[in-house]
Amino acid sequence: MRPSGEKILQSKKHPRDDRKELGFDSHHQTKFEILSALIKIGTAIGFMPIELKTSLQFFVEETKKLFDAYGCAIFSLNESMNFDLVYAGQTDMGKQLFTSCKPNECIVIRDELPFILKNTKRKDKRCRGFEFDGKVKSYACLPISTGKKLVGILTICSSRKHAFPQDHLEMMLSVATMAASVIQRAQMFHKIEEEKRRIERANKEINKLNTDLETKIEDLEEAQNQIIQTEKLAVAGRLAAGVAHEVNNPIGIIINRIECLQSEAQEKGVSDDLIKDLGTIGKYALRISKIVEDLSIFSRTTYSEPDFTKIDINDIMIDVCFLVEQKIRKKKIRLIKKLSPESLFVMGDSGRLEQVFINIIENAIHAISGNGSIIVSTKKENKFIQTKISDSGTGILHEHLNKIYDPFFTTKEVGKGTGLGLPISHAIVKDHNASIGVNSRINKGTTFTITFPKASELNNE
Q1: 120 touches 138 (CB < 8 A)
Q2: Among 49, 117, 118, 56, which residue's Cα sits nearest to residue 88?
Q3: Domain with 99 in it: what CATH number?
Q4: Neighbouring-strand partners of residue 115
Q5: Which residues contact 443 (CB under 8 A, 6 or more apart)?
Q6: Same domain, 347 and 233
Q7: pLDDT tens-digit series, residues 328-364
Q8: What gap in Å lies between CA 26 and CA 167, rounded to an integer?
Q9: Do residues 132 and 106 make contact, with C-beta atoms less than 8 angstroms apart?
Q10: Considering the domain boundaries, does residue 168 fall inside one?
Q11: Chain-wide mean pLDDT for the chain?
């Protein structure tokens, strides 16, 4: 039993004592220390940045410490490595050695063999052309090869003679191999980065080509749709002109004779049933007359040349709203005006634009059953003038949206629409170098947006 509080004394051992116990002599101990240092250098380099010169600078500094050298240098023999010399030491010996080295007189460069000179005062014909300052007494030169290609030379210099015994050659070759792996690693990452940049450039080019292609396809589809619409309007315009010409006069005569017959029937006391029948005939004759009138307007819109002047779109909207308010006075529909307080000038035909806005508003009135509202707004949008007509009606089916500008297409019941209102409006808008768009949701309502270019400064004067 030990007395309470007695301390147990233990001797502390140095790691070198453990190696002595294992039978390490000084020679093996030196090799063990060099090997440990090599492992340390290799581990550190593995975590260093991939920039080559930075890694090699660390490498030569650690190698100098490892062999307790006067200086250590790596010389590049490969132009693609972007450096000439990496050096750690006391003087400018590295640059002197590099500039004076003659490849045909150096066994390391010529034959890719290691070379150790134990005493610089004794010249060796196997390696000539090196120049050192007076403090260098011995040195070792080792080839750095990646695969079958010599890429550099590792030189370790000492201020002591016989500083590099022959049995250290294996260790020095390991250092040179490690330097080669550092260079190879950097070259591999460089190639990867180059390939990455090449792929990124290719992807950008492909994305740009795809974007350009999509834009061209959209432009082509738009141009194709415009051509189709223009052809439809042209055909419908020719048909409308022919029908209007052939039908207008006869229907005018029919309406006139019906009015005369109605007057005579009342004077002669004809039966109420006959008078009622005449009224029905007259109603549908007027319906035919309205269709002929629309056909005439459509044909004139399609073929006639516009006569434009500078007009304020707000003035047109005010006139249109006045006319519409008379129509909806007895309906439960509110007309809300949100007109811009400033003048909005465009180049156009006021009569035709009134017709466009009235057509759209009349469609809105027809789409509202019971209570509802129609909002008319104008505003300036950059270099454009924008008008919107929104309603809270039943909306337009998605499959009908691409047909609403087709002549004679209508969703109204028979006798309620000719299918010419929106085609006429579309043609007028295009004549004004403007655009018309529609956004509609079932049971939520529809919004027509017409965008005009502003009158130019020249026309404003």
Answers
A1: yes
A2: 56
A3: 3.30.450.40
A4: 141
A5: 394, 395
A6: no
A7: 877 888 999 999 999 999 999 888 898 899 889 989 9
A8: 13
A9: no
A10: yes
A11: 78
Phi-psi region of 455 (alpha: psi -120 to 50; beta: other; left: phi over 0): beta
Please indicate, yes or no, if residue 274 is contained in any of the structural domains: yes
**Do 259 and 221 share a structural domain?**
yes
Same-domain pairing of 140 and 46: yes
Q: Please tell me the distance from the alpha carbon of residue 95 to that of residue 81, in angstroms, as a whole number.
A: 17
Domain end among 304, 326, 341? 304
Alpha-helical regions (H) of 378-435? 421-431
Q: Are 156 and 139 in contact (CB under 8 A)?
A: yes
Quote the CA–CA distance of 350 and 310 in Å, as a whole number: 9
Q: What is the largest CA-CA distance in the chain?
A: 152
Q: What is the pLDDT of residues 148-202, one digit of tens each?
A: 788 888 888 888 888 787 777 888 888 888 888 888 887 788 888 889 999 999 9
pLDDT digits (tens, 9 = 90+) for 288-308: 777 777 666 666 555 455 678
**Coil/strand/helix, residue 374:** strand
Domain residues for the domain of 347 are 306-460
| pTM of the complete model | 0.45
Q: Which residues are CB-contacts of 333 (< 8 A; sequence separation ≥ 6)?
A: 365, 368, 371, 372, 373, 374
Beta bridge partners of 436: 450
Q: Residue 102: how many CB atoms within 10 A of its CB?
A: 12
Is 240 strand, coil or helix?
Answer: helix
Instruction: Give CA–CA dist 57/44, Å, rounded.
Output: 13
Is there a single domain that holds both residue 314 and residue 407?
yes
Only one residue has tokens 């529609």, namely 438
Q: Which residues pair with 145 in a beta bridge?
A: 150
Domain boundary among 246, 280, 304: 304
CA 360/CA 358 separation, integer angstroms: 5
